[in-house]
Specification:
150 residues; globular; mainly alpha
């Protein structure tokens, strides 16, 4: 099979978006779980497993839906690529929270869900986890866009 490359395009294999979708879903789940645990720690009460589990599932769903919209921003070459990756990663948590909040309670849940992930940037642990996910997803998307499957 021959892959024809146009000089202005860097997408020899379109399936890379599916892999990025799963990676963003996993990243959303991990960051949401960590954030739920951190927020519960501020109240002095342990997080019930149901709450952390619900946050994990909704974070995964939100990450997957967000990556459907934002996957094109990952893996671009050079400084512009890093800029797009950071912008997409800044938009992704509120977008994911809005999707998760809408699934829980349409209307008010959408607004609360979009606000909740902004706490990700308040806690150093969740911010560090978010940055690690951003870098790993961007570097892997760059590799996938260049034609390397793994």
């Amino acid at each position: 099979m021959t892959i024809h490359r146009h000089p202005s395009r860097i997408e020899p294999w379109k399936g890379w978006r599916i892999i990025i979708l799963f990676e963003c879903a996993i990243a959303g789940s991990v960051v949401a779980f960590k954030l739920a645990r951190l927020l519960a720690g501020d109240n002095g009460a342990p997080t019930p497993d149901v709450t952390a589990g619900l946050a994990t599932v909704l974070g995964g769903i939100g990450g997957a839906v967000g990556s459907l919209i934002l996957a094109g921003g990952y893996g671009l070459p050079g400084r512009r690529g890093w800029l797009f990756a950071v912008l997409c990663s800044l938009i992704a948590p509120p977008l994911a929270g809005g999707v998760g909040g809408t699934l829980m309670m349409p209307g008010p849940g959408t607004l609360i869900g979009a606000y909740f992930p902004l706490w990700t940037f308040y806690y150093p642990q969740s911010l560090g986890l978010w940055l690690i996910c951003l870098v790993l997803i961007h570097l892997h998307a760059r590799r996938l866009r260049s034609g390397h499957f793994m």
